[in-house]
Amino acid sequence: MKVKKAVIPAAGLGTRFLPATKAMAKEMLPIVDKPTIQFIVEEALASGIEDILIVTGKAKRPIEDHFDANFELESNLREKNKTDLLKLVEETTDVNLHFIRQSHPKGLGHAVLQAKAFVGNEPFVVMLGDDIMEDTIPLSKQLMNDYDDTHASTIAVMKVPHEETSKYGIINPEAEVSNGLYNVNNFVEKPTPEEAPSDLAIIGRYLLTPEIFHVLESQEPGAGGEIQLTDAIDTLNKTQRVFAREFTGKRYDVGDKFGFMKTSIEYGLVHPEVKDNLRDYIIALGAELAKEDTAEKK
């Protein structure tokens, strides 16, 4: 069965970005001039996804507005012949999007469970907004290609520093089936470095079979008192195969302030409108900081 649907959980409170996210959706924070969630939607479309469900929560209405038509703005840009800006605005409206609200933030697993009626009896992709992925073939498409071969759930993983395993779900790989595709013994949610079975961390892209919903409906709360998707995947793995696909492209972690700032700078350095000025500024700033360091050492 062809994978046609994607689910984007976007109901989190965004506490790492307070006070900016007190009344604004974290997913609408821009990387230069594009909201982070638009990168995720663009990856889904580039992968061949036809329908996207965004699971929202309180203060997330701007996400819906962003992907809706704005006739007044479009008319204004059209009248002033600002065709480039008009094209940018219209790009966000030609998407088959659906929305559902997660009334109570009970964890990622609970957010995914809200998509049961939308997904039906089909395989689907889950895409988290904290990770922007770059590769020749979009990561979601890589998982979809694996599904065409295996007809099984496949989770994206990436090697992380061993001391950081407590930040992620970690896989215990059994064997490499093919280049970069692993059989998995079990999945562990946020193990300490001493307990981590590997350095392969789950990184925010999942291709799941619909049987995951039966697991999530009876899943007990795990780490943090929340219904963890990793725990449900580990349970699913006991009854049907779940693979892991190692991602070797570029991952931008925009889930915390420093990662967000690094991503903004890197994208700014290739953005046609600001790249030259930003590059000159960074060079000048580096020289100034070097002078200060030299003066402090004297």
TrEMBL record:
<dbReference type="InterPro" id="IPR029044">
    <property type="entry name" value="Nucleotide-diphossugar_trans"/>
</dbReference>
<comment type="similarity">
    <text>Belongs to the UDPGP type 2 family.</text>
</comment>
<dbReference type="GO" id="GO:0006011">
    <property type="term" value="P:UDP-alpha-D-glucose metabolic process"/>
</dbReference>
<dbReference type="GO" id="GO:0003983">
    <property type="term" value="F:UTP:glucose-1-phosphate uridylyltransferase activity"/>
</dbReference>
<feature type="domain" description="Nucleotidyl transferase">
    <location>
        <begin position="5"/>
        <end position="262"/>
    </location>
</feature>
<dbReference type="Pfam" id="PF00483">
    <property type="entry name" value="NTP_transferase"/>
</dbReference>
<keyword id="KW-0808">Transferase</keyword>
<comment type="pathway">
    <text>Carbohydrate metabolism; nucleotide-sugar metabolism.</text>
</comment>
<dbReference type="InterPro" id="IPR005771">
    <property type="entry name" value="GalU_uridylyltTrfase_bac/arc"/>
</dbReference>
<protein>
    <recommendedName>
        <fullName>UTP--glucose-1-phosphate uridylyltransferase</fullName>
        <ecNumber>2.7.7.9</ecNumber>
    </recommendedName>
</protein>
<dbReference type="InterPro" id="IPR005835">
    <property type="entry name" value="NTP_transferase_dom"/>
</dbReference>
<keyword id="KW-0548">Nucleotidyltransferase</keyword>
